[in-house]
Amino acid sequence: MNFTRWSARLPGTQRRAAARSEPTAAPDRRGEGRGAVPAARAEHLTDEPPVPAVDELPGREVLDRVPALVALVHGTDHRLAYVNEAYAAAFGARPPGAPARDALPELRELGLLPLLDQVLRSGKPRTLKSRKAVDGRSYTFTCTPAVREGDRSGGGVLVFATDVTDHAEAAERLRASERRQRETAVTLQRSLLPQELEEPDDLRIAATYHPGGTEAAVGGDWYDVITLGGGRTALVIGDVMGRGVRAAAVMGQLRTAVRAYARLDLPPHEVLQLLDGLATEIDAHQIATCVYAVHDPNEGRLVYASAGHLPILVRDESGTVRRADEPTGPPLGTGGWMHSSGSIALGPGSTAVLYTDGLVERRDADLDEGIAALERALAGATGTPQVVCDRLVRSAGVTADHDDDVAVLVLQHPARTGPAAELFRNAALELLGGIEAAPRARAFASGVLTSWRFPADLHDLGVLAASELVANSLQHGTPPMRLRLRRTDRRLIIEVTDGDDHLPRRRRAEPGDESGRGIAIVATIASNWGCRRTPGGGKAVWCEFALPRGEKKAKG
């Protein structure tokens, strides 16, 4: 083997050869006598032995002194011809003449033998980056063909291994740091989302969230479920534009604000109006999309307002899917827009899906195509809300390395039959006014509660609450007036509506006052009470009583 020729392939040897071949400049004697090198010294310098050319260097001595690991194999079975001192120090002495699979087991474990075959066949060098060897250190292996002219034995391969342990360990520390940062960001994101969804009486709900990408910059997707009282439920989903901790922080503030505004029991468009102003105050350069919807089991509809968000999809009992397209306003944070509310039917047996753009948006497809694909997936998705959630996510091809955050909120209004239907009942009475309205309302409430077989104490409290709410409406409200009683598997709800939009408030009545005690009495005896303005003008005042555990078990 010609080690000298192979040694010429090592880094730096070409530069040294080039430097050796440059002609030596002629001495300039014009400066003699003015600090020039004396002639005797110049003659001494010219007597130094010349630097040998690369071809004159002994190749084995060069390779032995190289700090990198070097091995030479020869022939189609890669018989070991040589290892340098660095290789022997790392893996031990290796007897020449044996095939590489026996003589170099460390290369076999690293999967390097097929690479030797490729280099020998192609005549081109190949590199295997940063592989951890049996000695615990990491190396980058470069295999270079070494073929002599006239050699019919198949030629050889020079294996050159550079120790990159420090670089590999630094890269692993960096990856570990990025993983920790991502885990922290995802933990922050998830901590800002509801840890447990509220469970309304009339709806079954499930949600899922998938953080996008592999970096620490999670997005600002969020969802929430808020029970408003009186059997009504608010549902919200939104997406803060951008990624990172800033987007997550803005999302957390908006979610908190939504819960606060929801307690005011405002119409959906008014909630978005308030959120729009708040988003501008939080960060004038940050915008967000959002859908806020309210479900009222008495109406069988979903009333919603959208700020630049994707349309709600509703699948009815027959499997037909509809979009709630209009009205849609600009995103939150843009300002200067009056939002409006719309509605879509959500009767028994229906399923509604609220989602963020990560579920349907792809770089290589139009957004409408993604929504249409989601509609097709929803049309065939049956089962519990959680099952529907999982099926929609799978159908959209969302995986662990998906490049965008995905939030999905699924709600079902189940169609109840048999014994379950007995736990959900409604009764209503139109109040015409006059002195006979209050006694008529008490008699109606008493008859309904008796037919629903409530215990005597709950029956009496329900009649008293209905009487006080009706009396308050007769005194301060205007026609049309209605008394509505509703029972679920968890509570009794009593509600009175009238045409006046002045909301009552609880106040302390003085001993001499002839009025002002009705709401105070209702607030004292009921589990919860509240009031809200109705969309067509007027108001609704309601209260609710939690059912005793024994009552729920007996009726279940």
Automatic annotation (TrEMBL):
SUPFAM superfamilies: ATPase domain of HSP90 chaperone/DNA topoisomerase II/histidine kinase, PP2C-like, PYP-like sensor domain (PAS domain). SMART domains: PP2C_SIG. InterPro entries: Bact_Sigma-Reg, HATPase_C_sf, HATPase_dom, PAS-like_dom_sf, PAS_4, PPM-type-like_dom_sf, PPM-type_phosphatase-like_dom. Keywords: Hydrolase. Residues 203-413 form the PPM-type phosphatase domain. It comes from the Bacteria. Coiled coil: none annotated. Residues 1-54 are annotated as: Disordered. GO terms for molecular function: phosphatase activity. The keyword RNA-binding does not apply. It holds the Pfam family PAS_4. PANTHER family: STAGE II SPORULATION PROTEIN E (PTHR43156:SF2), STAGE II SPORULATION PROTEIN E-RELATED (PTHR43156). This is PPM-type phosphatase domain-containing protein. It comes from Streptomyces glaucescens.
